[in-house]
Amino acid sequence: MAGGTRDQGGASPVNDPAQFIAEAVERLRTELPGKAIIAASGGIDSTVAAILTERALGERARALFVDTGLLREKEVERVSELFRNAGLRFEVLPAADRFFAALADVSDPEEKRRRIGAAFIRLFESEAERFGTDRLVQGTIAPDWIESGGALRDTIKTHHNVGGIPADSRLRLVEPLRDLYKDEVRAVARALGVPSPDRQPFPGPGLAVRVAGPVTPERVRRVRVANAVVEEEIERAVAEGTMRRPWQYFAVLLPGRTVGVLGDNRVHGEAIGVRVVESSDAMTATAADLPRAVAQRIAERITRSLHGEVVRVLYDITDKPPATIEWE
C-alpha cells in the first residue's frame, strides 16, 4: 500500500515524512471503510502502522499486542508503556501456551517461522471475528517480503508475517509500510513523535529464532536471561562512552552441549552466541567491534547468571552477507 519502492539509485518513497503520513492515512481511510485490528508487537514497524491506522480510523481500530511467551525480559511492561506514551488504544493477549504448543518438537528454523505465523493468524482470526472485521493491519516492510522469496527471488528466510501466513487465512491484510525500509520507517516514526524511534529491532517470532534447536520454556528462559545481559552491558558501555550504540545486539542459545568446569567438577552446559551489528536498513550489516572489557563482562555475567546451565560464550564476527542478522 505504500508509495513506491527504493530504486537502485537509492531514491526513497519517504522524501517528505509528513507528506507520506498524510497520504498513508488517506489511503487507510479508503482501504478500511469499516473496522480493523492491528498486529502491534511494539517494534517500530508495527507501532508506526498502528498509529497511522488509529489516525485514519479512530475507535474503529483495535491494536493487539500478543504475549507469545517468546518475548524479552519485561517486554510486556515496556511495550505497554510505549503504547500508552504514543496514545494508542491497545489490548494485551496472553498466548504463551498456544505458541509453545505450536513449536513443540520443532527445530527447523523455517518451520518455526511458519508455525509462529500460523499461530498469530489463527489468534487474529478469532479476535477479528469478535471485533466484527476481516481486516488485519501489519507492519510489514520491504525486507520482510524480499527475504521471504517469491517470484524470481530466492527465500533467504521466511518472515512469519509473510511466508508464515496460512493459505486459507480468512483475513484481508493491509500493509501501509510494505514498500519502506527500516531507515525510512524510522524517519516516519520521528515525524509521528513515536518515543525511541531508533531503538533496536526485535524479530516478530521473538526469542524462538534466538533459540537454535528445540524451543522449550526452559531454553527460552536461558536466552532471555542472556539477552538481557547483552542489552544491559551494551547500553552501559554506550552511556559510558566506550562504544557507540549499535544497530542491533542480542544473545542466541546455541544447539548442543559443551564441556565446562564448576569447582572441581566437569559439567555439560549450553553455549551462548553474542551478536552485535551495524546497519542502516537491515538488508546488509557489519559485525561490530566489541571492546574486550565489554565482552568480558557479558561472558562473566551470563555464565554467573546461568550457573551450570551455560558454560561458554562466543562472539559472532560474521557480516551480512554471508550471514543474516538473526541466526534463524
Description:
The chain has 2 domains: 176 residues, Rossmann fold, CATH 3.40.50.620; 106 residues, GMP Synthetase, Chain A, domain 3 (2-Layer Sandwich). Helix 6 links the parallel strand 4 and strand 5. It has a 5-stranded parallel beta sheet, sandwiched between helices. Strands 6, 7, 8, 9 and 10 form a 5-stranded mixed beta sheet that branches. Helix 1 packs across helix 2, helix 1 packs across helix 7 and helix 8 packs antiparallel against helix 9. It is globular. Helix content is 38%, strand content 17%. The N terminus is likely disordered. The protein has 9 helices and 10 strands. It is of the alpha/beta class and 328 residues long. The two termini are 28 Å apart.
Briefly say what this structure is.
By secondary structure, this protein is an alpha/beta fold. Helix content is 38%, strand content 17%. It is globular and about 70 Å long.
Residue windows where pLDDT falls under 50 for at least 5 positions: 1-10, 149-153
CATH architecture of the largest domain: 3-Layer(aba) Sandwich
Q: What is the straight-line distance between the termini?
A: 28 Å
- Determine the number of helices (DSSP H or I, runs of at least 4 residues): 9
Radius of gyration: 20 Å
Task: Sum up the structure in keywords.
single chain, 328 residues, alpha/beta, Rossmann fold, 2 domains, five-stranded parallel β-sheet, five-stranded mixed β-sheet, 10 strands, disordered N terminus
